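As promised in the previous annual report, we have extended the structural survey to additional targets. Below is the entry for Class I SAM-dependent methyltransferase.
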Amino acid sequence: MEKEKNIEIHETAFLTSTLRSLNEDLSQDYFAKLWRNPKSDIWIEKYLDRVSSEEINIHCLRNRYFLDTIKKLVDDNNVEVLINFGCGFSMYPFLLDERLVHIEIDKPEIIDYKKSKLTDWQNSDTLPKRNIHFIAVDFSEDYKHDLLTQIFSIKNNKPCFILIEGVLFFLDREETDKLFDFFDTIQKPGDFIGSVSFQDTLKESLAFRKLLDLLNQIVSNTKESDYQTIEDDYYRSQPAYQLIDHQDYFSLSAKYGNVIKLNKEEILNENFYLLKKSN
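The corresponding C-alpha cell record, generated without further manual editing, is:
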C-alpha cells in the first residue's frame, strides 16, 4: 500500500463510488451518489478522459456482480457476515439484507471518514440502520494478530463472505499470498471469497499505458512492475479453495445487456472470481 501514500483520499477512495453512481440502473447502487462532491467530480472527469470512458460501466458491473452474488448466498442462508477488505466508500451494507453483519476494514483515514459520514446520514434518515463494525488497520505494520482477534470477536462461528476489491492490483505476490493465507485462517469450509484482479494481458493494452501515464502524474516514480496482474491459475491453485465462478467485463456485459462502446485495447478489463473454501 506504500505507493498510494502520496495520493489524496479524494482521488482514490471516491473514485469507485462516484463511478458506480453514474449508471445506477447497471450498478444497482442507489447510495453511491452520496459520496460525490465537486472536487471528486473534476477528478473523475479527468480520469475518464485520460484513461477510459468505459470505466463507468466496468465499476458498475463489478458492483452488480458481487451484489447479486452475495444476495443469493444470503437468501440461501450460506452467508451471515460480509467482511470487506479495503472497503473504501462502498455501500454494500445498505444494498443487502438488514440481517447481514458487516465488517468494514481499511486504512484509518478511510475508516474514520466513512464512519463519520455514515453516522451522519443514518442520523438524518438518509441511510437505514445496519449492523456495521469498522476496523481501521495500518497495513504497513504487523496487523494480522490483532485483526484476527477483532474479526473472530464479531464473526464468531457464522458463515462469511470475504470481499476484496481494488486491492490486489497494489500488492506484490508475497503480500497477496499472505493475505489469502490469512483468509484461510478466518474462514471455515463452505465460506466464500470474492476477488477482483487484472490478467497479464492488461499491461499490453493502450488503456493501461494511459493509466500508467496518469498515475505517474500523481504518484512519483511509478512503473509497470509496481502493479500486480494475476492469472486464473493463481485462484485455481489455492489449496483450501475451489474456484466456482469467473467473470470479466465482457461476460458480465453480455449477461446484463451492457453495450460496450470502446475497443478491447481501450478497456481496463477487470476479472471477477468467486471461491468457496473446501477444507
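The domain at 2-277 is CATH 3.40.50.150 (Rossmann fold). The first helix runs from residue 9 to 21. These points will be discussed at the next consortium meeting with the crystallography subgroup.
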